[in-house]
Design a protein that fits this description.
- The protein is mainly α and 361 residues long.
- It has 16 helices and five strands.
- The chain has helices spanning 2-5, 8-27, 33-40, 44-60, 62-72, 74-94, 98-115, 119-126, 129-161, 165-168, 170-184, 198-217, 232-255, 271-288, 313-319, 344-349; strands spanning 225-227, 230-231, 323-324, 331-333, 339-341.
- A three-stranded antiparallel β-sheet has the order 3-4-5, with no helix packed on it.
- The longest helix has 33 residues, at 129-161.
- 34% of the residues are buried.
Length: 361
């Protein structure tokens, strides 16, 4: 048992398990969209935020979480992230309305953000230079498999156990991962104390929030006005400006002797590190791309939407245009003013196949 606890591969297996669990949840929800729509009586906008709340919190908080790992130790932050993610999964499975599910998914994203950046520093400390290439390859392959496996695993769980099972399945896995983390991952601490750059954290968080929120909500508002004089391009532009200020602030702290930057630029002088960062960024973009409406569910009036259908070019344009009708709650309103049936599967059951049902006035 002692040999296992001191073996780097044992620690790597726990890190991979945590990574797989969190990245699986980036795509596993996609196939459950129709069931969530029916089960929680959610609007399309609400269901899209079930997907995007996770991605938003995950992306915005990664830099801050990495620094907290430097301060408090990566094993401790990894375990905290697993606990947050597992508790949030339980809340997601118990959600009784769309708002509860969106909040729980945001909490899941927070847990993932705390957990995810702790793996690389641990691997750098546990493995010698000559073995790191193979270790990073394993880590990257598992990350890719998790993203690819999401729709398949989600489809099986939804078909056999209902949509809540895609969240509750994380509970036993999270408990096991937490126990193994405390048992098998060594408690490595930095040789010197680190400080948290509060101003840098605020700049990075606000900048990333503006850019990512604008990209998520852009199609919904036709890349135009959100409210009053605020537009999507202005939100994205403000986010880019804040992030540019963050980079300038980090450059200044890099030049200071005890600057403690959140983003040390000297690491990018290592060619292998820079290439690995670009590869991981490409994998992250490819993995999160299914979250965009292009791969969403097209709600066809008069068609039972039990299973998702990939949205083609014409469907893709219409996906962001369906708006929840807060007035009487009876249906979903398009921007053209025409009302679609609130429960299209009932409409289909009452008509012969192949005939068109005219929308209600």
């Amino acid at each position: 048992m002692t040999n296992v606890r001191n073996h780097p591969m044992a620690a790597l297996s726990v890190l991979v398990l945590g990574l797989f669990m969190t990245l699986l949840d980036l795509t596993i929800v996609n196939v459950a969209i129709p069931s969530i729509l029916d089960g929680l009586h959610a609007s399309l906008d609400q269901v899209l935020w079930v997907l995007n709340a996770y991605s938003l919190l995950y992306a915005v908080l990664l830099i801050t979480s990495a620094r907290l790992g430097d301060i408090h130790g990566p094993r401790k932050m990894f375990a905290i992230g697993v606990v947050i993610f597992t508790v949030a999964s339980a809340f997601s499975g118990l959600a009784q309305d769309p708002t509860q599910l969106i909040l729980a998914r945001g909490l899941q994203g927070l847990g993932s953000a705390v957990l995810a950046p702790q793996g690389l520093p641990l691997m750098m400390s546990l493995f010698p230079v000559e073995k790191r290439g193979g270790v990073f390859a394993i880590y990257g392959v598992i990350a890719g498999l998790a993203v690819i496996a999401g729709p398949t695993v989600g489809g099986y769980l939804v078909s056999h156990f209902g949509w809540r099972s895609i969240f509750t399945v994380n509970i036993p896995i999270g408990v096991i991962t937490f126990a193994l983390a405390l048992l098998l991952i060594p408690d490595l601490r930095p040789g010197r104390k680190h400080r948290l750059d509060i101003f840098g954290v605020a700049l990075a968080t606000a900048g990333l929030l503006g850019v990512i929120y604008g990209l998520i909500e852009g199609q919904r508002y036709d890349w135009g006005v959100v409210t009053g004089f605020i537009t999507i391009p202005e939100i994205i532009g403000a986010g880019l400006v804040l992030f540019a200020v963050f980079l300038y602030h980090q450059a200044r702290r890099n030049r200071q002797k005890d600057g403690e930057p959140l983003l040390p630029f000297e690491v990018f002088k290592d060619r292998n590190f820079t290439l690995m960062t670009l590869v991981m960024a490409a994998m992250g973009f490819a993995g999160s791309h299914p979250q965009r409406p292009r791969y969403g569910v097209h709600l066809d009036p008069g068609v039972h939407h039990r299973y998702p259908r990939p949205a083609g070019p014409s469907r893709r344009r219409g996906l962001g245009r369906h708006q929840h009708d807060p007035g009487d709650g009876r249906g979903v309103r398009q921007r053209s003013g025409r009302r679609l049936p609130a429960e299209p599967h009932r409409a289909r059951a009452s008509r012969p196949r192949g005939r068109r049902v005219e929308p209600a006035a």
